[in-house]
Amino acid sequence: MNRRDFIxxxxxxxxxxxxxxxxxxxxxxxxxxxLSPAPLPVLAAVExxxxxxxxxxAIALLGGMGRFVGKGDKVVIKPNIGWDRTxxxxxxxxxxxxxxxxxxxxxxxxxxxxxxxxxxxxxxxCYVRSGIQEAVTQAGGDMIFMxxxxxxxxxxxxxxxxxxxxxxxxxxxxxxxxxPIAKHHSLCRLTLGMKNWLGATGxxxxxxxQSLDKTMVDLAAFFRPQLTVLDAYRILVRNxxxxxxxxxxxxxxxxxxxxxPVAVDAMGASLFPVEPxxxxxxxxxxxxxxxxxxxxxxxxxxRKI
Length: 305
Known about the structure:
Layout: H1 3-12, E1 43-47, H2 51-61, E2 74-79, H3 95-107, E3 112-117, H4 123-129, H5 132-139, E4 142-145, E5 151-155, E6 163-167, H6 168-171, E7 175-179, E8 181-185, E9 189-191, H7 212-223, E10 227-236, E11 249-258, H8 261-269, H9 280-287, E12 300-304
Parallel strand pairs: 1-12, 2-3, 2-7, 3-4, 7-10, 8-10
Antiparallel strand pairs: 1-11, 5-6, 8-9, 10-11
């Protein structure tokens, strides 16, 4: 049974669609014992000097990678590798963040950790220049290039996107981890977690710009990752989404991870002079039951290391 069939089956059984397969990812220790443990945070934000260390700490605060990944799982990690830019330009996800997630996934017992993105610039150059290909290879993961054989038109049943070409590697994975980078975007102000799903599609993606907010929400509702890890170590604050100058970036030395993709994006917006209510797609996503953008209503753990 692939991941999509599993979700549909779970829905038919009356399980909460908002959490999808996460409903099955509760660690055994959380269900045993005479005392009820404190609930795990929905959102973790960690600041520190090392991208690897803050990524590990954020995942630990959420309960550890074993909460999300099981033995033998095929896991797809979906970073933003869209641009032919070095890490200092903050156009692609930090390679150390990706490397750390690959290591954590494999340490949790996953069979494979596959990293893939449908890039905007030439894929081989993006994979190499971003530093992500080398990082993934060193960590024991698999880098895969998109091609026509890996894409299939699928029914999305969204509010705006009824069907579209989707990367099969992503949709057929047992578990999905979304790993965007926080950036300015000329069309939708910011590109965070939900915008990152455009890189899991094929076809004429320029058509998405006709209704970008609705597109992002439809894709987020379709993919429903187990975990979103927002790289905000160095963010792009101008001339996004590809930038091109170090002066367009700012060091925030932060990683935000969470099980609520709406809350992750809302907290990511706080790194810019943008209120969550100013991003229309967040309200649409909340209406669709994908999460909460009012951070006062979300269990949040912050830490500086």
